[in-house]
Amino acid sequence: MSKTVITSDKAPAAIGTYSQAIKAGNTVYMSGQIPLDPVSMELVEGFEAQTVQVFENLKAVAEAAGGSFKDIVKLNIFLTDLSHFAKVNEIMGRYFEQPYPARAAIGVAALPRGSQVEMDAILVIE
């Protein structure tokens, strides 16, 4: 099976030794996205704005892979403050319809660049 690197200029460029996503067969493994504005490469301010930016970054990479949020089968959410969990659910509802992907929400001590939220995902594109 071959693997293909997926990139989108509508999402932040990788800031380390990783690809935005890798497609292997019909499965796409998206790297974690933090709320960097893809143009300025600066962190957006405020939890809600950060969460929206992460979803927009994931959306851009999914589209570059030929997919969409309906193709996400697994979503991982990393939060520095689990009290934001209800807000994440609310915002996620703007981007996803049933059937929802499998999901984990994990509290972490810190994220890159001082972000409050990071997400990664797995898509299966048929």
TrEMBL record:
> Which InterPro entries does the entry link to?
RidA, RidA_CS, RutC-like_sf, YjgF/YER057c/UK114
- Determine the domain of life of the protein's source: Bacteria
Per the similarity annotation, which family is this? Belongs to the RutC family.
Ranked from the top, the taxonomy reads: Bacteria, Pseudomonadati, Pseudomonadota, Gammaproteobacteria, Pseudomonadales
How is this protein named in the record?
Answer: Endoribonuclease
Against PROSITE patterns, the record matches this protein to: UPF0076
Signal sequence span is none
